[in-house]
Amino acid sequence: MSNASSPNTPALPKVGFVSLGCPKALVDSEQILTQLRAEGYDTAKSYDGADLVIVNTCGFIDAAVQESLDAIGEALNENGKVIVTGCLGAKKDADGDDIIQKIHPKVLEVTGPHAVGEVMQAVHKHLPKPHEPFIDLVPPQGVKLTPKHFAYLKISEGCNHRCSFCIIPSMRGDLVSRPIADVMLEAENLFKAGVKELLVISQDTSAYGVDVKFRTGFWNGKPVKTHMTQLVGALGELAKQYGAWVRLHYVYPYPHVDQIIPMMAEGLVLPYLDVPLQHAHPDVLKRMKRPASGEKNIERIQAWRAMCPDLTIRSTFIAGFPGETEAEFEYLLDFLKEAEIDRLGCFAYSPVEGATANSIDNPVPEEVREERRARVMQLQEEISKKRLQAKVGKTLRVLIDDVDRNGGVGRTYSDAPEIDGVVYVKPPFEPHRKLAVGQFVDVRITAADAHDLWGAAE
Ligand code: SF4
């Protein structure tokens, strides 16, 4: 069997794999094998050719339990270094003891089913693989562009809308939603790997599942629809188990978004709603060909805040869209004064090549677009200052992103990484209690400006 090593490179560590059980266990086996290969481990076809053996077990009926126990015994006799995963790994006997540990105490590690991350941790511990920069396709920690404590979870690709300023659908095509079980498994793996904040992204999170007619999938043996509300519920429950945050981005204000707000009020997912509204005037929105009209947005926002008073709303707007009159722009300013959006980004319209908006009559001159953008940001500065000032004196949970000698920098539920504000945190008085990246701390807020907060860890 080839191990992809040249005479100049050391042989790759080899893992033997025994896969028992149902199709769900088979998928777990495939995922573990995929991860092993991605990290550069080789697989062995026999016990004596393996440096370590993984047995994926079944614990469903007595015969399957016996078959699994026999397979573990055989692997221990023939090889000696054995990691066990799968359903039997999670099973206890009548005395409440782990069945596998009791019968086969020499097994190195035992995990339950769907435990790719835990199995890989056990493999790293008992069969560390030296990093080979010339042959490894994936670094040992995996390819991640975010720090270890937060991660983006993409739930779909493409978009069914045709906003006139946007060329994403022509580049990425129509909406394709990922199966809900895949999304949930990825979320679970990320939480297991230490992610403390999961940021759900897509082009249009509210449309999740529309392309597959909200097909029913399965997660943890229970049916779950490929639908935004069910996904958010399942992600929130999962995050609760790991003490992690879930943050929703790109939520279009479709009617079913109202069902998400109570989940935010309950604390299942962060009370943070990123709704890209782009404008408020109905005629501008029509020219933009936006999904969900602007007419009821003020009422919606007020109703959401009544349901969830802590809700932070983030949105983006375009100033100087082709055809925007001064009156339409002032309508937007009035909307912003009333809506008091917590976190706001505003862009001067920029004609993207290929966007149909470029041919709309009466384009707004560039200096007017810029001037309108500045007026929005000036207004927003006042709103933001007022809303952040209201947090002074409160104690808020902060996720620490960075630490230095003076303390740390983190974010509250109101701040998404990179795009929102931060909290500058003084460390606790006791010298042994240092702040750490990825740690949650309760911070008493002492000061605020238009963007950021300052406070002391409690
Ligand atoms: S801006 Fe419009 S067309 Fe572009 S991705 Fe968003 S919803 Fe889809």
From TrEMBL:
Assigned protein family: Belongs to the methylthiotransferase family. RimO subfamily.
Known function: Catalyzes the methylthiolation of an aspartic acid residue of ribosomal protein uS12.
Entry's localization field: Cytoplasm
Pfam annotation, one family: Radical_SAM
Limits of the MTTase N-terminal domain: 13-128
Record: residues binding [4Fe-4S] cluster 2: 159, 163, 166
Domain of life: Bacteria
A GO MF label: protein methylthiotransferase activity
UniProt domain TRAM: residue ranges: 389-458
EC number(s) given by UniProt: 2.8.4.4
SUPFAM superfamilies: Radical SAM enzymes (SSF102114)
UniProt gene name: rimO
Reaction(s) catalysed (UniProt annotation): L-aspartate(89)-[ribosomal protein uS12]-hydrogen + (sulfur carrier)-SH + AH2 + 2 S-adenosyl-L-methionine = 3-methylsulfanyl-L-aspartate(89)-[ribosomal protein uS12]-hydrogen + (sulfur carrier)-H + 5'-deoxyadenosine + L-methionine + A + S-adenosyl-L-homocysteine + 2 H(+)
Cofactor names: [4Fe-4S] cluster
Record keywords: 4Fe-4S, Cytoplasm, Iron, Iron-sulfur, Metal-binding, Ribonucleoprotein, Ribosomal protein, S-adenosyl-L-methionine, Transferase
Manner of cofactor binding, per the entry note: Binds 2 [4Fe-4S] clusters. One cluster is coordinated with 3 cysteines and an exchangeable S-adenosyl-L-methionine.
Residue spans crossing the bilayer: none
PROSITE patterns named in the record: MTTASE_N, MTTASE_RADICAL, RADICAL_SAM, TRAM
Name of this protein: Ribosomal protein uS12 methylthiotransferase RimO
